[in-house]
Amino acid sequence: MSQIDEHKYLTTSEFLVQHQGRIGRNALYDYLRDGTIPCLRIGRKILIPADALDLILQKQMLEVRMRFPHQCPVCLSRDVYLHVSSQNFHCRRCKHMWTVVEERERTWRGPKEPARE
C-alpha cells in the first residue's frame, strides 16, 4: 500500500470548501508556496492532506505556548495562555486575568541606567 493510499488528499478547491471560513484562497496559496502547508504536485494538480489545517493549527498553538512562557502573578503557575481576541493573559489554575500591557510592564527590564559618578 502506498503512502498516498493511507492519507486522504484533497484538491485546493475541495480543501477550501471543507474549511470554508477558516482559510481563504489567497492565504492557502501563500501557505502552499512557502511550505507551511505540505502538498503533492502532480502536473498542475495540487493535492493537500485533508488534515493539514488541523496539524498547522496544533503546531501554531504549541509555538504560542512555547513563545509565551509567562507566569501568573497571583499563583505563580505557568499554565497561562494568551486569549488572542481580547489580548489578555489567563491563568488556568486561579482564573486570574491580566492584560498584555501589564505583562510587558511587569517583565520588561529595559536598558540599564548609566553608572553615576
Quick overview of this protein structure:
The chain is an alpha+beta fold and 117 residues long.
Features:
3-stranded antiparallel β-sheet; 6 strands; elongated; 38% helix; single chain; 2 domains; 117 residues; Multidrug-efflux Transporter Regulator, Chain: A, Domain 2; alpha+beta
Descriptive account of the structure:
- With 117 residues, the protein is of the alpha+beta class.
- The chain folds into 2 domains: 3-59, Orthogonal Bundle (Multidrug-efflux Transporter Regulator, Chain: A, Domain 2); 68-107, no CATH class.
- The protein is 38% helix and 19% strand.
- It has helices spanning 3-6, 12-18, 25-34, 52-67, 100-107, and strands at 9-11, 40-42, 45-49, 80-83, 88-91, 97-99.
- The strands form 2 sheets. A 3-stranded antiparallel beta sheet has the order 1-3-2. A 3-stranded antiparallel beta sheet has the order 4-5-6.
- The chain is elongated.
Structural class: alpha+beta
Name the helix and strand elements from N-terminus to C-terminus, one letter apiece. Answer: HEHHEEHEEEH
Kindly provide the radius of gyration, computed on alpha-carbon positions and rounded to a whole number of angstroms. Answer: 21 Å
Shape: elongated
- Low-pLDDT ranges: none
User: In total, how many beta strands?
Assistant: 6
Overall pLDDT score: 76
